[in-house]
Amino acid sequence: MTYGGHELVYETHGSGPRVTVLVHGLLLDAHLSRALAMALAGSGAHQVVLLELLGHGRSDRPVDPSLHRIDSYAQQVVALLDHLEVDEAVIGGTSLGANVALQAAAAAPERVRGLILEMPVLEWAGPAAAALFVPLLLGVRFGRPVAELVTAVVRRLPRTRIGPLDTFLNAASMRPAEIAAVLHGIVIGPLAPRVDERRVIQVPSLIVGHRRDALHPFSDAEHLAEQLPNDRLIRARSAFELRTRPTRLTGEICAFLDEVWRPQVAGGRSARSR
């Protein structure tokens, strides 16, 4: 599909009537959630769409930072729904993708049936995010010759066909100017909806957090659970549980989707679990 003159790539798994859109993490791609998409689609009830945002994966990679703001990414999600002629969908994402899903719910609540928010990056992650992203941004901008050499080497490496590993190899293959544009856009735009905007997001929300990760502190997940009026909070055993030992969390997500698509959920409040 085309968005603002740029090509946005997505892939669809399943053909069920219940649509879920999943968004990857920062600099990553659809490989990250392909196994989850296939598992959800396997029930026959769900159609799962993996969107690769501008600057990521197979989508175009414009170097205009304004196209890489979180609010711009949320607009890309809504544009995908328009393209698919879908009135409403569950929107989910990991890390950056979770923030994009939140922003989409704040900007276009009538298009969002529910939210799956894995490892959101919010206020408590600010210092760690700055410590990671600012040096990386400066490095790819001012150390471009070295960065070009490194990324060129990684582009030549064979892929493993292990989705989560390949998504990180693909991220490390991006050209420095592309990485810089994405990071610049994240820095200049809103990280997520304001707290007052989050408090009025009424749709059912499944929040997945974990401990021992400064970039995705469990405190962010806990605070978000307090802010959203209709949430369920689950603690993952690690940042990698959904990719390496997915049975438990995939079951939780399937149960959540079944609940979200029941007619009575639209105006109600789902139970919260800790």
Give a written overview of the molecule.
- It is a single chain.
- The chain is α/β, with parallel strands linked by helices and 274 residues long.
- The protein has a single domain (2-267), classed as Alpha/Beta hydrolase fold, catalytic domain (Rossmann fold, 3-Layer(aba) Sandwich).
- It is 43% helix and 16% strand.
- It has eleven helices and nine strands.
- The protein has helices at 34-41, 70-84, 96-107, 126-142, 144-155, 163-172, 176-188, 195-198, 218-227, 241-244, 247-260; strands spanning 2-3, 6-7, 9-13, 18-23, 46-52, 89-94, 112-118, 205-209, 231-235.
- It has a seven-stranded mixed sheet with strand order 3-5-4-6-7-8-9, sandwiched between helices. A two-stranded antiparallel ribbon has the order 1-2.
- Helix 9 (218-227) links the parallel strand 8 (205-209) and strand 9 (231-235).
- Helix 4 crosses helix 5 and helix 4 runs antiparallel to helix 7 (176-188).
Write the layout of secondary structure elements.
Elements: E1 2-3, E2 6-7, E3 9-13, E4 18-23, H1 34-41, E5 46-52, H2 70-84, E6 89-94, H3 96-107, E7 112-118, H4 126-142, H5 144-155, H6 163-172, H7 176-188, H8 195-198, E8 205-209, H9 218-227, E9 231-235, H10 241-244, H11 247-260
